[in-house]
Amino acid sequence: MTKLPGSKPRIGLLGTGPWAGRTHAPALAAHPGVEFSGVWGRRPEAAAALAGASGTRAYEDVDALFAASDAIAIALPPDVQAPMAARAAAAGCHVILDKPVATSAPAARKLADEVTAAGVASIVFCTLGFAEPTARWIDEQAAAGGWFLGEAHWLGSLFGPGSDSAYAASPWRREKGGLWDVGPHVLSVYLPVLGDVTSVSCVAGPADTRHLVLRHASGASSTATLTLSAPPAASEAALSLYGERGRATMPGWDGALGAFGSAVDALLKAIRTGEPHACDVRFGARITEILAEAERQAETTAASA
Predict the structure, then answer these.
(1) I want to staple 75 with a disulfide (CB 3.0 to 4.6 A). Which of 15, 155, 190, 257 is the partner?
(2) Burial, 157: exposed, middle or buried (Cβ in 10 Å; 0-12, 13-18, 19+)?
(3) What confidence tier does 257 reach under pLDDT thresholds 50, 70, 90?
(4) Model's pTM, two decimal places?
(5) For residue range 150-196, what is the model confidence (pLDDT) as tens digits?
(6) Domain at 134-251, CATH from 3.40.1390.10, 1.10.220.10, 3.40.50.300, 3.30.360.10
(7) 10-129+257-277 with 134-251: one CATH topology?
(8) CATH fold label, 10-129+257-277
């Protein structure tokens, strides 16, 4: 049964890693419109430490956290996230998912079906879709239309020489690379502006670098170069659109903390109105389908080289 939160909805957190500790937990603790109901993690000691630092309580029994919450935010590796999100939804909890929602198309579609069947609201936290001013810029470009080309490169240095990022220890990022970690960011801009992807081409570059060429339902095409292995001096995230009015370049954004607060607001609105948000679990599943096809093509091309 879907939970109907009171005046101050209770939101719990699954996950205790750097992303949970630096973004999810502080945003939930600071949000004036919600009660941070608790933390669960696969390592109870880490959950206790994060809960203590955030002014909430730790749960060793995840079902107990579901029972004490109206919604659940998830900061877990994608293929751990998917079954846990389905379990939360089945318990009647609305969900804020991280990107990608899963790393296989069948798993993503199954999750979307399960969340939909449970009748709960969902948000996929694609940072650019919730951060100011990028969210506003995306809406403006989608409304303007007339674009025929998109060009993006997201050159992260997570695995570059000398990197000391806490996220470099993430096994799933090490395995799946920039395609899966930063690819969702680029698609979260392209899809609402240029339309759904109708064809995908992808080839591998150095290390985890992947080069995508996409065709969109609007007739536009786009490109994206994605990596987590760029030299630090070459790191950059940029996206431009070209069309009837010339060139539009996506502005920068200031971290993820405020954006996550906006994602919480979006979830609360979806719960209140019953209207699905554009960046919900089905949108997240579509992103996974596109990336899975890109991965398949890159692997096939590499195997035949």
Answers:
(1) 15
(2) buried
(3) very high
(4) 0.95
(5) 999 999 999 988 888 889 889 999 999 999 999 999 999 999 999 99
(6) 3.30.360.10
(7) no
(8) Rossmann fold (3.40.50)
